Amino acid sequence: MNRHDGEDGYGKSTPDWGALADASAARSRRRRWLLVGGGVFATGAIAALVATSVVSVGNPDANASDRAASKLPAVAELPSESAEPEPNFSSVAPPPPPNPKDYVSSADKDQAPLTAESLFPGAKLTLADRSYQKGATTTTTNCAAAAQGALGSILASNSCDQVIRATFRKDGVAVTVGVAVFEKEAQALKAKAQAEGGIASLSGAGVPTFCRAPSVCRKTANSYGRYVYFTVGGFVSGQNVTTADKDVFTAGDDVAEFTFQQILARGQAQASAAATRPVDP
Fold it and tell me: Which residues contact 138 (CB under 8 A, 6 or more apart)?
């Protein structure tokens, strides 16, 4: 009995294994293409998504900053005027402080007590590292009597009010200073310009008579305000003074400088008192 394909020896039909194999291979090929196609599609979709993201990042919304700014709080308005009152400054300049010299240039302002002790206080005169012992002091309204030579008449003719004298000594050298006081500075300046002769030396309190004729002594004359101050200095032994006797020159300069400082301090004290004195309404 002839056996037909698809049947076994018992009359039963059998599968066509070749056809089944071909069909299976075809299905496998289709599945691979679908997978490949799906992968390409997925890759393309991802690439498109990335490109879209890049484009979005590279082109931010131009209105974003405007929207952010619109959400900021409004700036508070500043007050146009302060509640506090503004300070007021006077346009009038304050008066200048008093000039100390004005208070020793005229008897009208020079009202402080004036004595030998107020001009030459204490028992010593000390300047730098040099100290001088104070000797006798005196005050007289007879200005001519306190001078030698032509100076007496010069003081009198310029209406000298008084002369205050004091003597200082150190190591055999003595110096007498005489302060002639006038009503006005102009009189003092005139007397100084005309000065001849000299102040009379003052002895006493341990100092013998010195610098009287015919002794040669060193003399000076200066002024400040209404005061003219004269010095005469030399050796208590009566020895003549020469330009080589530096101790005599130093002593005379020290006494004159001290006298000037005392007159200046007198003016400063009175000017300071006037500056702090309440002004009458």
Answer: 116, 146, 164, 165, 202
**240 is written with which tokens?**
């003549």
Q: What are the DSSP calls for 101-139, one per residue?
A: GGGGSBTTT--S---HHHHS-SSEEEETTEEEEEEEEEE
- Residue 218 exposure: Cα atoms within 13 Å on the Cβ side: 22
Q: How far apart are CA 260 and CA 127, in angstroms?
A: 13
Task: Return d(Cα 63, Cα 23) in angstroms, integer.
Answer: 61
* Chain centroid to CA 120: 36
> pTM value?
0.66
Note down pLDDT in tens along the chain; length 281 residues.
Answer: 444 444 444 344 455 545 555 665 566 555 554 444 444 444 444 444 444 444 444 444 545 445 554 555 555 555 555 566 666 666 666 667 789 999 999 999 999 999 999 999 999 999 989 999 999 999 999 999 999 999 999 999 999 999 999 999 999 999 999 999 999 999 999 999 999 999 999 999 999 999 998 999 999 999 999 999 999 999 999 999 999 999 999 999 999 999 999 999 999 999 999 888 665 54
**What Cα–Cα distance (Å) separates residue 262 from each residue in 190, 191, 267?**
22, 20, 9
